[in-house]
Amino acid sequence: MSKIPSSGFGRARPVFLSTLLASTALTGVSSAFAADTGGIETVVVTAEKRSEDLQKVPLSLQVLGTEKLEQLHVTSFADYAQYLPSVAFSANAGGGGLSDPGFANVYMRGVASGGDGNHSASLPSVGIYLDEQPVTTIGGSLDMHVYDIARVEALAGPQGTLYGASSEAGTIRIITNKPDLSGFSAAYDVKVSDTENGGFGGSAEGYVNIPLNDKMAIRIVGWDEHDAGYIDNIAGTDAAAGIVNGVRTYPNGPFTISNAPYRKNNYNNVDIYGGRALLEYDIDNNWTVTPGLMGQQTNAYGSFAYDPTMGDLKVAKFAPEFSRDEWYQASLTVQGKLGNLDVTYAGAYMDRHVHSQIDYSDYSYFYDNYGSYFLDNNGHQINPSQVVIGHDHFTKDSQELRFASPTDGRLRFVGGVFYERQTHAINQDYVVNGLATSLSVTGWPGTLYLADEARSDTDYAGFGEVSYDLFPNLTLTGGLRAYQSVNSLKGFFGFGAGWQTAYGYSSGELKCFSPDPIVDRGPCTNLDATTTEKGFTHKLNVTWHVDDDIMLYATTNNGFRPGGVNRVDLNGVHAPPYKPDYLTNYEVGWKTSWFDDTLHFNGAVFLDYWHNFQFTFLSSNSIPFIANPGDARIKGVESDILWKATDQLTLNGSLSYTDARLTHPYCGVDCTPPNILAPKGQQLPITPYFKGNATARYEFKVGDFGAHLQGAVVYNGSSWDDLRTVERADTGKDPAYTIVNFTTGIAKDNWELELDLDNAFDERAQLYRFSECTPTVCGPQTYIIPNRPRTVSLQFSQKF
User: Fold this and answer.
1) Is the pTM of this model over 0.85?
2) What is the CATH number of domain 8-405+413-799?
């Protein structure tokens, strides 16, 4: 690869950079910079939808390339997210937890209210892309196995102009390695692992690249991974939750249940397998067609959270828990030229099915004052234990056509049109065994509550960015996106008519306005609503190339998240839709190269205002309601540094400081003083004040072998998981944690053998805390989703 242009030591440094370098103790090692190194290789990115040198892109952008992903042994979202300081995440408590990766809610720059993840609520605020196509889904990000990946790009801040809806706070792009016409290549990796106080795991993955002729090549990738469990389902005791020696007693009855049939050590194991194929056809010198197909299935078992009152990594569960997440995406990318314009068409269709079951007996216990309501067909009171059986079907159809002018002109532009339609077929079945037919949802024996709904989110947009060089080293860029979004939700939700009549619940069959179900197998229809919105997002950027090695920029831009349909309001009647929320960003950043291009120091300072943010909370009938009750201010710093100290030693690190706070009291609907749920100035949830990481890698020779030593440290500050004061007090705070990973290995010719020690000091990080129902009710039984305990692995790799 080519090197980044450099002018060496003779270039004067701005005062603020000299001061900052001094403060980080780098000025005391100038002799090391002078070591005979080849400089840092150029990293080419496509964050602005054209190929550019990372150091010339005027936005806060962190990149993990192929080599870095391999060195860090990244295989999943959770692996790479820890090395992206602007990225935070939380588990979707109803979906198996973070370790079942498809159920993580992703956030950037502190834009999080803690109320996301419900199937009928807000869309995500961070867009996830696979190559050119969006793969963002509500209720948890689509997490693909990371292997043979060119790079992961994390675009921090609103990307409303080029990426649109659900890129309100940022965008994460996973770019795959493409077919290579130049020759045959292949590789495989085999790994075995042992988790502390857990089980054994392993994986096998590989790819092959085959030129079919001088115009066509295919690249095929496959993987099969088993992640060992480390949480035990035991005969434990949690008096606050009515559990003694693995037996739970419901006071109203009384009734007892035992988890004896389900007790097992290390029962939260995961199996992941899938593949990807891309075909590249160079029609001529101007046009290339790349169709692709990728699919993956993830089977997760057990719970990925533990109950701290029962001991470390221990839990008592009273029904089988699992999720099966399977998806595929078919894509087509066409690239070519019309005159001097670059033309790109990117289309894709994604289909995702999730089948899950969770133990819902916590809810039954903490709401046991309703236990006398649960009767069988003979009028006798029954055990109120519940399980929730879920079937979710997602589809996403996306189409984009864009044009870009040559990059060497004084006036440059990129623009196009975009269409996306995503659907979500929702079936959530709350089952109580033996429940009377008269109390069940009609046609669903034993179903206490049913959500059988169809959701659709459609987006239309036209977008463009224009750049003009005012001077050879000063560029002005303006961008605009005009959009229209359509959200609809229809079907049935609620209780059976008998339950409503007997106990006065408002949502359910008695609210149906049509006896005919318009979705699936619901008993009738009580929901059919649509909302449409139009709007604009903007961007204005000034970029100053001080010289070949230093670039400064200033940006103001905004991003948005579409609104949607509410099912009911707090009084149990249909409510107005919730509105879009917007993030307005003011940012100043720098990209710099130093000492013959052996040091890169990049960063950004930002101030964001989050207007009328969407927040989901439970109505009086435990039905999610979405309002736009809040405003927040977020300020922070993001920075990363890469230093190739010698040909053998490379050091890099990145960090973020994020201060995200309410600018007005949060109060839901009624803002009279007794109803204030969070005061002005309260810290937003999920994102810590500080997050950072550092990696050191030393490569050397041992006889005829190449060898390396690597250490990586990840720090994550403390954070809350709820915005509201009382609820966060009930579930508690996630404390700060530090994870240390070590790697060593040897290589010769085309093979490599590596020994990894992940979480070397067995730090028990608390990634997320939750209770199964409203925290003020179920708070006494708080679950904690941890990181994986210390894991030792041995990996053999070979390339051809």
Assistant:
1) yes
2) 2.40.170.20
